[in-house]
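lol ok so funny story. i was supposed to be doing the assay writeup but got distracted and ended up predicting the structure for this chain instead. priorities right. anyway since i did it might as well share w the group, maybe its usefull for someone
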Amino acid sequence: MAGRAVVVGAGIGGLAAAVGLHRTGWEVTVLERAAVLDDAGAGISLAPNGIRALDALGVGPAVREAARRQYTGGTRTPGGRWLSRMDGAALERALGTPMTGIPRAELHRLLRAELPASCLIVGAEVESAEDLDADLVVAADGLRSRIRTALFPGHPGPAYSGSTVLRAITAEPVPLDTDFELTWGPGAEFGHIAFTDGRAEWHAVINSPAGVRHRDPLAVLRRRFGAWHRPIPDLLDATRPEDVLHHDIHELAVPLPCFAVGRVALLGDAAHAMTPNLGQGACQALEDAVTLAAELAAGPSLPAALARYDAARRPRTQSVTRAARRAGRMGQQLTHPLALAARNTALRLAPSGATIRAILRHADWTPPALDRCLNGDADRAGEAPPAPARTVR
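and the output, tada:
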């Protein structure tokens, strides 16, 4: 089954959905609200399920080449004591794929490279899915999805998690002893992801009221984290102030009743925005994309395919959303000294394979097979600029 599809949103999930649909014979248009594709978002750590989804889409080899495999790291206290260690080699043996770190901009570029240049339209404000000229509409328009709001007007929408995140990619390489780390203090977390070129992405998550912003965010972070173990001060010192991104963390705490309404399929944050505490947000969106393309390719009708997509994706993603919320409450958001001490002791005493088993709960996913109806490769996104803006009402 194929036809004309419009994907609303050119984030990771939307681009991945477009790649999957394009590869299975659909005529795809991607409408992106932003007028300029700045690919903001610093870096991303992809779990094996995300890499397997990219493999199913045909993008896995290029991502592996551009990404740094994560074999060493774990979780520490602000003073540097290890609470748990990550054995990336053991994870790779278990799943055949390691954790990997890559700049989001590079992942976006690799996904766009799999699409015809003419299919991406930037500056396109989509007010409603009703008037889009398509057999299928994929709502991948993010946390504050307008399409989701129109389909579920009684849904409360995103809820603030109680935490805010500041993050950046360093402007220069930083000597690092590990590929990936998290450090937990009272109501705060600092983590880093190492990249192939020696630079690193860092993030600082802090309990905070929503909407608080700082004139000099690096100065605020140095006061909060400057006494924490190295390389945390080094990462902040290697960062330009203008590169720091600051976003409050929201989630869909109230789950949606379904991910498909009529000819519309919801995907990624539009369907199941979650906190980042498990690092599964993008991975689940990639799973969505592969599953949607596979179910549509299997036919026999759009309603049947979308019903199967909903049945496959809603239970899994909503379970991961709940698990991510619990992980945040037991990790970064803890503030009481007794609770912190109990958690840290439990982590230190946990068996060596506990970290691997925790990752396997969510990362052990096998993608459905896609019918690779490959279209011509001559017209790629890197060979022409995106189409100009238009407004869709």
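The longest helix spans residues 302-330. The chain has 13 helices and 18 strands.
back to the writeup now i swear
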